[in-house]
Amino acid sequence: MANGHLPETDTAAQMASIVISVDAMGGDRGPAAVVAGLVLSVAAFPKIAFLLHGNESELGPMIAREPALAGRVTLCHAARVVTMHDKPAQVMRNGEGTSMWSTIESVKRGDATVAVSCGNTGALMAVSMIRLRRLPGIKRPAIASFWPSRNPTGFNVMLDMGADIKADTDDLVQYATMGASYARNGLKLARPRVGLLNVGTEEHKGGAELKEAHDRLVAFQHTGDFEYVGFVEGSDIPSDRVDVIVTDGFTGNIALKTGEGVAKLVADFLRQEFNASLWSKLAAIMALGTLKRLQKRIDPRRANGGVFLGLNGTVVKSHGSADATGVAAAIRLAYQLAESGFLERLAARVASAEQAGQDAAAKGAPAGAEGGTTE
Amino acid sequence: MANGHLPETDTAAQMASIVISVDAMGGDRGPAAVVAGLVLSVAAFPKIAFLLHGNESELGPMIAREPALAGRVTLCHAARVVTMHDKPAQVMRNGEGTSMWSTIESVKRGDATVAVSCGNTGALMAVSMIRLRRLPGIKRPAIASFWPSRNPTGFNVMLDMGADIKADTDDLVQYATMGASYARNGLKLARPRVGLLNVGTEEHKGGAELKEAHDRLVAFQHTGDFEYVGFVEGSDIPSDRVDVIVTDGFTGNIALKTGEGVAKLVADFLRQEFNASLWSKLAAIMALGTLKRLQKRIDPRRANGGVFLGLNGTVVKSHGSADATGVAAAIRLAYQLAESGFLERLAARVASAEQAGQDAAAKGAPAGAEGGTTE
Description:
- Chains A, B: It comes from Paragemmobacter aquarius.
- The structure is a homodimer.
- By secondary structure, chain A is an alpha/beta fold.
- Chain A folds into 2 domains: 163 residues, Isopropylmalate Dehydrogenase (3-Layer(aba) Sandwich), CATH 3.40.718; 201 residues, Isopropylmalate Dehydrogenase, CATH 3.40.718.
- The first copy, chain A, contains 13 helices and 11 strands.
- In chain A, strands 3-2-1-4-11-10-5-6-9-7-8 form an 11-stranded mixed sheet, with helices on both faces.
- In chain A, a hairpin with a 4-residue loop joins strand 10 and strand 11.
- The longest helix of chain A has 26 residues.
- The two termini of chain A are 36 Å apart.
- The interface between A and B is large, with 61 and 61 residues.
């Protein structure tokens, strides 16, 4: 659809294109950073095409200036923008006509496979919830992110990073199912190791919902096709003990921002010390390649993109302050999830977990009661 | 008391000595690391003296081998040791006769001003609670730690780091009072800036107890003699926006361990990159001084020692894996708190906060009801 006016010879490529719906507005750096991200993305993925949502008179000239984007971008005009200060409840009521709403709407209609936005997280989750709706059986959707780690892939998956501020036992068990599915598809791990974040690894630690979730996950790990490693601590988040870290959105958000803050503190201290004397400045010049490789390994832009899990559609939330590199990373993630058919796989896992839960419940009931389940 | 046999001329110094009660057992590295920490401490503080608790037949020869400790250490025999695996409830019931119990008992009897232990945190808090008891009006004591930051002092204070796994509105407000008092004494700040940890700085973020605590702190900051800066995020913990970060013990523990894990990850990545090639190894040699200064700035041993606040006595919890440098840092902290009369200052702040709360409540009641308050 994005290339409707291309010559006949391109039709095959066009048919196979993967369409991503992108919100051009609402990020801290404005639409220019988003368009620059699109330019990087088309170079990397020949099959990618975009529906770009925002102010047409502002975006049109930007797109026209980029020959690489010719025929790859369809503009979808939306006059209004959701700002970082808008409250989610307001956007749910009055969000129609914003670029964010329009971006999600394209996924709902099936015109695009995955949506990407740098906008207000709470508003994006609210709009995604009311337009895409939750997968059957899911009470609380979650945001999953990659986290730099000592694992061979270089990353762990952690959720919930702040879709909601709390999670009960059922939610935590569903997060484990969804996080494992994301790790299977996003990190190519056949049987991910799942841990439950707590203040200690001993079984008596933590609140009641954590202990219950622990017992449920011990029993459920085989059905869920993951390995449950038990409670993990904050120090395990960047470790190679675990691939998926499950926690509530309050704790996940605090841990994520604490980790970002500490990594930045260490990097700033390193810079200060290398600037402290003429000798250390000379050493810094010699160590330039080394320091650049370090910077790349801890660069949060490389892992940019929280994924909303548990909805009838895939939404990637890019960091609000993402630059071209960050936007391109979020789009790469969206492309990979679209290409691998992630949503269908996730939905199948959630459905089969639901089924297993109903079967387990039915075993405790009279034999005749089992007929109520499907599959 | 530690120098009972010294000649007459030393009596004045002896009278002025500051006695610290130290648990020699229960740390991961055993009593040798603790004794090595004492040796570092006596060199730094001429007035310091120790009551050292543990197995006499093991400790006696160790002390005898260190001339610097002659006349500065009184051994207090305790046959049993609390291990890292003992549950707090068990230790509360059966802990008498352990070195940990004996260490706290010396503070209760007034023989020492501050206690230091590298042992099991949960057990140490449990023993401290039942032997020292809570300050009047305190429901949940807290553990406060220093955190490396961009502030001129190089540190922030954060609490609760895991004394309990939850905190209600009253607890959070008391943590603010106690944390501000600790920052005044430990960081020499006349009017500390206090922030409440949340998932965003906007007023509508977070759960009900956070919103209520926010409103209470806005009203209470002048009486409490601190500046309340509102909600802060995980990324603000190592910043210069705030001096005291208030949160519940579950979140505080996760944030602390996440920060430690991320700092270690970055340091390990840096080491790997400097070892990657001959050239980078040469650069590392040139940058040796710079890297050592960085290591010192982020060395967690420098800030070793969580302080239990809200009890009738001061207890410093050293990291379980502390070496001589770490133990000496915990003892330095204990010494400074003893010397400054911190416990009396903290108790006075808590009492005046209680009074202010009662006064505020009384204003809402009939005039005659005010007579019930003291002071």
